[in-house]
Structures are given as structure tokens and as C-alpha cells.
């Protein structure tokens, strides 16, 4: 699964907000595969990748959150020195800028999963898969 649907939600930055959203997702049996959050001016910009984007969208809409959706590249890399360097260099060599990245866990194996917000998801995804395959041979 070299690409994924990412949801970026704008939430109130106050106690309990994230817990309520996460509980609403759990109540609908939606698993959070990866997430990242940063505060900005009394709000939190929170990125999510879910195992069930359709149901997750319904939960976020029901919570009346402002959110966007985008395709992101994802790759399962070995947990050892140099793997992120290999993946990032592969993208850089292809002229693909990494706007941001964060980590999660691949649901079926619990392996580390990296999520990349990049300028060209279509080109980035196969390059990241190549980097992961090369790591498996190294």
C-alpha cells in the first residue's frame, strides 16, 4: 500500500478535544494508523491516516471538524540506522521535495510506517518502495 488518504483536521487546542475525537473513531471501529499534531494559535493542526477512510470521514464530519483530505506516500522501513536517509535521498535524487513526514504503525504487522507529504505522490510512492526493497537486500 504505497499511498494513503491523509486527513488534516483543525481542532481546538484544549484538554479533552483529541480524546473525544479518538473515542468517536474507536466507537466506529476506526484504527489510527499514523498521526501528527502541532499547535497553532489556539488550535491544533492534526494529521491522521486511518485504516478506514470512509468511516473516518463520517466521524470527522459528525464532529463538525474542519478537515481536508490528501494523498500521501507511505512506506514500511526497517527500524535500523540509515533507512530514513536512504528513503529521503531517493526522493531528493528524483527532485521530489518532502514537505513533512511522520510515523505510524502498519496495522497488519505492527511494523514502523513512515508517511510522507511530498510534492509528487505518484512518483514518490514507487521510489519509496524501491528504497524499502533495497533495504531488505542490504
- The CATH homologous superfamily name of the largest domain equals VC0802-like
Largest sheet: 6 strands, antiparallel
Integer count of domains: 2
Share of residues in helices: 25-40%
Envelope shape = globular
CATH class label of the largest domain: Alpha Beta
- The ordered H/E elements are EHEEHEHEEH
Average of the residue pLDDT scores = 92
Q: Counting H and I runs of at least 4 residues, what is the number of helices?
A: 4
Secondary structure: number of strands:
6
CATH topology grouping of the largest domain = VC0802-like
Return Rg in Å.
Answer: 16 Å
Poorly predicted ranges? none
Question: What would you note in describing this structure?
Answer:
This protein is an alpha+beta fold. It folds into two domains: 67 residues, 2-Layer Sandwich (VC0802-like), CATH 3.30.2130; 67 residues, Alpha-Beta Plaits (2-Layer Sandwich). 36% of the residues lie in helices and 38% in strands. It is built from four helices and six strands; from the N terminus they run βαββαβαββα. It has a six-stranded antiparallel beta sheet with strand order 2-3-1-4-6-5. A hairpin with a 2-residue loop joins strand 2 and strand 3. It is globular and about 40 Å long. The two termini are 22 Å apart. 27% of the residues are buried. The mean pLDDT is 92.
Amino acid at each position: 500500500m504505497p499511498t494513503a488518504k491523509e486527513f488534516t483536521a483543525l481542532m481546538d487546542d484544549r484538554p479533552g478535544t483529541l480524546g473525544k475525537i479518538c473515542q468517536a473513531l474507536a466507537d466506529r471501529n476506526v484504527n489510527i494508523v499514523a498521526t501528527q499534531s502541532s499547535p497553532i494559535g489556539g488550535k491544533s493542526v492534526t494529521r491522521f491516516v486511518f485504516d478506514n477512510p470512509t468511516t473516518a470521514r463520517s466521524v470527522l464530519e459528525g464532529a463538525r471538524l474542519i478537515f481536508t483530505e490528501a494523498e500521501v506516500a507511505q512506506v514500511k522501513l526497517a527500524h535500523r540506522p540509515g533507512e530514513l536517509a536512504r528513503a529521503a535521498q531517493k526522493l531528493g535524487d528524483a527532485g521530489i521535495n518532502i514537505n513533512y513526514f511522520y510515523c505510524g504503525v502498519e496495522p497488519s504487522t505492527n511494523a514502523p510506517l513512515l508517511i510522507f507529504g511530498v510534492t509528487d505522490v505518484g512518483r514518490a510512492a514507487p521510489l519509496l518502495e524501491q528504497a524499502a526493497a533495497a533495504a531488505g537486500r542490504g
